[in-house]
Amino acid sequence: MNVRRLSALCIIGGIALSFLTFIMVPKSKVTSFDPKPDDGVMVYQGDPNDLQPCGAFKEMRTFQAPEPVTPTATNTPNPQAPTPTAPPPTSTPLPAPSVDRVGFPANYETEFKLLFVFDRPDRKLVRAICGNDLAAQHQEGEPFAYGSVLLMISYSAKLDVTGQPVLDENGHYIAQKLVALHVQRKEEGFGEAYGENRAGEWEFVAFNEDGSYQNAPATTNFCAACHSHDGGESVDHAFRMHLWYDGDAALVSPPVGENEISIYLYAFHEDVLEVKVGTTVTWVNNDEASHKVVAAVIDDQGKVVAANEPLFESPALASVNAQPGASFSFTFDKPGEYLYLCTTHANEIGKIIVTE
Ligand code: HEC
Fold this sequence. Notes:
Elements: H1 3-17, H2 108-111, E1 113-120, E2 125-131, H3 133-136, E3 149-157, E4 175-186, E5 202-207, E6 213-215, H4 221-231, H5 242-245, E7 260-264, E8 267-269, E9 272-276, E10 279-285, E11 293-298, E12 304-306, E13 327-332, E14 336-342, E15 349-355
The structure holds heme C.
């Protein structure tokens, strides 16, 4: 982080502190804000012990994914939408550990450190990512130390009567109900049981709030598979740590060229693009998750759904960790309005307006 960015953050921090009790900041440079109104200088406190406890996240709402502008107001959550936490339908269980070597982090609210929080617009969730002390000492570009435990707490967002998230005064979702605790632990030799879907030396378990299993160890091959393929070795199978290293800068989609659309943090940027007839539009996946672009229509209930015979349909566009810049192009030969969506993430919708 350069000086300009530090001071920019500091100014934003100063303003935000007037109505926030806590502000999350990138870990490696600054672990807490000291807005010092006198000189505007922010103090570097590079000690992981200065991080806030995990339980502080509800008061802390600065790290957010951009709010996607959906082309229809009638778009409601699709209960059939695939979710990353749903095991794939399979009769033969895929190989996975038979015993729990991850463990329920019962005292996470006080013992774990808060790394970052963000809204997940496609699934209307607020997610807080926390780590134990070892995980919180992790440095960008380095593998996590053995003994690291990462925890992801998912809360459903408070919705209004139309099914849209209610926003707080900062434009962020309001955490309502804890729906899952996802945990991954790294120890020497861990993960072997996942076979070819092994994600480094991590093992995975998902819990309910009371510590009962949402995904017991034997059913977690799909966790390893996604963290292996989309997460990848370059980030040691942990996603979105740039929200921690780079803070709010990591919320902004990388720039793209003319007639290009970036897929980033579960949204299309720009989600409405206007082009002339004959233009080739290219979608570039800049996200750590994989995405798929498919032409869509509005159904009888006013929902945006994938077209039965789509005019255009991309293959799965791999995560940037697996294949940087996986892209798909289509040339629009006729004027009109073309809706499209990502078939793997509900509410990730865009529109191309083609004019003469
Ligand atoms: C389809 C891919 C996918 C599957 C399946 C999946 N995850 Fe993740 N996981 C992600 C992504 C992407 C993130 C980053 C948060 C986000 O984008 O919502 C993440 C974040 C996490 C985190 C926070 C630390 C990190 O790695 O970023 C934990 C812990 C975690 N997942 C555990 C699990 C567990 C346990 C399971 C299985 C029960 C699971 N995951 C299944 C994609 C997946």
